[in-house]
Amino acid sequence: MHITVIGSGYVGTTIAACFADLGHDVTAIDIDEEIVETLNDGRSPITEPGLENLLEAHAGNRLEATTAYDAVPESDVTFLAIGTPSNDDGSIDLGALEAAAEATGEAVADKDERHLVVIKSTVTPPSIETVLEPAVHRGADENENIGVGMNPEFLREGSAVSDFMHPDKLVFGASSEWGTDRLHAVFEPLLEDHDAHVVETDPQTAAMIKYANNAFLASKISLVNDLGNICKEFDLDAYEVMDAIGIDDRISEQFLRSGVGWGGSCFPKDVNAIIAAAQDEDYEPALLEAAVEVNERQPARMLEFLSKHVDLEGARIAVLGLAFKPKTDDIRNSRAIPVIEELRDQGADVVAYDPVAIEPMRDRFPEIEYTTTAAEALDGSDGAAVVTDWDEFATLDEEFDSMAEPVVVDGRRIVQRQDGITYEGITW
Ligand code: UDX
């Protein structure tokens, strides 16, 4: 098959490279010439394990990048993987995606064969009917050969390529049988070797499945954090409690790690977007709002434990871990941001360390000190707040000896407790 992918961000680049690896001819389209050039050179514009290998293998043969929409009418399917940034009220800004949907429609307006335009971006169910389908059909001049589908992604940063190649489920949202068949044809090479559940549904339900998935996981962590906070008050080990409840198949052992909360580009954005979309219909989703509130409270709670042992005013505090999770340099909605803000508000001098995410955080907080090792950050500090569960923090040992006051508040239960340091977990 020939597939065009509009948008070469995190999702677009990953799926374009993976489709090429499945044996399809892929044209990646982006307005950014630098990204196009990078892709054509077989290099990755983002840090993602395994991605560069795929780009290197397929650029110049099965994968081509361009700024023009010329390849769209020659392809069988177009995937729209355009960002939908958050507005101030949590709702999503569909402007760029709507423009791309219309431009795609225009490109295929004269087509005599069927063409499926698939929304890959995460969008609210009503926006498919009210904004995106109309944009495609308007562009295509109501050409009846053009269909619109929805195929949400469940890729995690840091394992996006492997998640693509080994999905638990594929969700095909289409409003016609041929639309569903075409999505099957796209993923057929993957399904030949891998047994994934295929969910066939309409585009709106497919969009809701994506939000429900992320809202459920984010709320699961917030519930675990709420219960963990109670455990802490009772002086009980939250991890022991969670390990036990995870044995129940109905709960499952995953996503039960309590701590400083969830961040990243998806959970915060998606939970806020579905809350805003529900409010648009005059429905207040009380549990989801509470999930956000618990998540917002955890960083402040972390610092309450720190200030039990250290007067933060004028103190030198080491923040270990800046990325929103390990194995990525992404700091979007990282819990390190509210931790640093709160520390600064309370008059502390922050010295921060992360193995890969210093440069992005330097743009956000140019005024704080950054170090190239955890040991340097700890040296002479009056306390440490551990925000990301990088493996290397599990082996910290004599590095703590050089702290002026060896107080460690661990937001991820990664540091080894040891004699001579005052250790506090957030929920244990
Ligand atoms: C998530 C979804 O998992 C993925 O399916 C979706 O497509 C995009 O959003 P990602 O944002 O890459 O993926 O990260 P994920 O590994 O899910 O972690 C999200 C956040 O939750 C991180 O900040 C992580 O530290 C936190 N988390 C995760 C916990 O606090 N506890 C846990 O038990 C699990």
UniProtKB/TrEMBL annotation:
Entry annotation: catalytic residues: 266 (nucleophile)
InterPro entries linked to this entry: 6-PGluconate_DH-like_C_sf, NAD(P)-bd_dom_sf, UDP-Glc/GDP-Man, UDP-Glc/GDP-Man_DH_C, UDP-Glc/GDP-Man_DH_C_sf, UDP-Glc/GDP-Man_DH_dimer, UDP-Glc/GDP-Man_DH_N, UDPGDh_AglM
EC number(s) per entry: 1.1.1.22
UniProt cross-references to PANTHER family, sorted A to Z: UDP-GLUCOSE 6-DEHYDROGENASE TUAD
One GO process term, biological-process aspect: polysaccharide biosynthetic process
Taxon lineage: Archaea, Methanobacteriati, Methanobacteriota, Stenosarchaea group, Halobacteria
Annotated metabolic or biological route of this protein: Nucleotide-sugar biosynthesis; UDP-alpha-D-glucuronate biosynthesis; UDP-alpha-D-glucuronate from UDP-alpha-D-glucose: step 1/1
Pfam families named in the record: UDPG_MGDP_dh, UDPG_MGDP_dh_C, UDPG_MGDP_dh_N
Superkingdom per UniProt: Archaea
Binding positions (NAD(+)): 30, 84, 122, 157, 269, 332
Gene Ontology molecular functions: NAD binding; UDP-glucose 6-dehydrogenase activity
Keywords: NAD, Oxidoreductase
Residues reported to bind substrate: 154-157, 210, 255-259, 263, 325
Family under the similarity heading: Belongs to the UDP-glucose/GDP-mannose dehydrogenase family.
Domain UDP-glucose/GDP-mannose dehydrogenase C-terminal: 318-417
Biological source species: Natrinema hispanicum
Reaction catalysis annotation: UDP-alpha-D-glucose + 2 NAD(+) + H2O = UDP-alpha-D-glucuronate + 2 NADH + 3 H(+)
The name this protein goes by in its record: UDP-glucose 6-dehydrogenase
